[in-house]
Amino acid sequence: MLVVNLLRKGFKMAKVTPNPAKAALRTEIAARIAALTTEEKKRQSEIVYEKVINHPWYKSANRISLYMSTDQEINTAPIISHIKARGGSAFVPQYAGGIMRMLKLEDKDENAMPLTRHGIAQHSKDQIREDAVESGGLDLVIAPGVAFAKTGERCGHGGGYYDKFISNLRSNPQTAPKVIAVAFDCQVVDHVPTNEQDQKVDAVLFAE
C-alpha cells in the first residue's frame, strides 16, 4: 500500500549522500560531451534514433516515458515525434517540490514548455495532464543519465529521481516496463560505481 501511495503522489527525492567516485565520473563525462561538436552530436543522435525506433521493445510499446533533452544529451525530439505519429502516448518528467511525475505530452506541449533552473523543459505547474502511473502505467521507459556500462549500470545526475521511479515501477514484476538508456558513445564506460539504490537499465543504445 505504501508503494501505491508513493506512485499516486509522485516520487519524492530522498536525501542522497554524495559519492566521490560518481562525482568524478560526472565531471569526466561532462568534459567528454563538451568536446563533441554540434555535428557529431547530431550524427550520433540520428544513429541512436534509428536504433530506438527499430528496437522490438519500442515497436511493441504504446505508452512510453522519455525526457526533454538538452544539448548535452541525445536528441529525443525525433523520438517524441515518432511516438505521436504512430498513435502512441509520450510522457515526460515534471519536477516540482522535490517530486517527479510523468505527464503526457499533448499536441504542441513541447513548443511551449517553461525551462527549469537546470534548463530542462517541462510542463508548468498549472497544466493538467494525464499522469502515466495513475492512468495505466507504462510499456517502456527511455531513461536519461550521465554514464552507463554496457551491462546496464547507470550513473544519473545525483538526485535519485529516476532510481526511485524505476524501483517503484519494478515493485510489480508483472507490469514493470523495460528500461532503455540512450547515450553518446563517450557516455558508455567500462565501470559505473553503484550502490543499493541504483537501478540498472535493461539496454543501452548508443552510436557504436
From TrEMBL:
The alphabetical list of record keywords is: ATP-binding, Magnesium, Metal-binding, Nucleotide-binding
Q: Name one Pfam family in it.
A: 5-FTHF_cyc-lig
Q: Gene3D superfamilies from the entry? A: NagB/RpiA/CoA transferase-like
Q: What is its EC number?
A: 6.3.3.2
Molecular-function GO terms, alphabetical: 5-formyltetrahydrofolate cyclo-ligase activity; ATP binding; metal ion binding
User: What residues bind ATP, as annotated?
Assistant: K22, A23, A24, L25, R26, R154, C155, G156, H157, G158, G159, G160, Y161, Y162
Q: Which GO terms describe its cellular component?
A: mitochondrion
Q: Name one GO biological process term.
A: folic acid-containing compound biosynthetic process
Q: Does the keyword ATP-binding apply?
A: yes
Binding residues annotated for substrate, in chain numbering: M68, E73
Q: Which domain of life is it from?
A: Eukaryota
Its recorded reaction(s) are: (6S)-5-formyl-5,6,7,8-tetrahydrofolate + ATP = (6R)-5,10-methenyltetrahydrofolate + ADP + phosphate
Q: Name the coenzymes or cofactors required.
A: Mg(2+)
UniProt family annotation: Belongs to the 5-formyltetrahydrofolate cyclo-ligase family.
UniProt protein name:
5-formyltetrahydrofolate cyclo-ligase
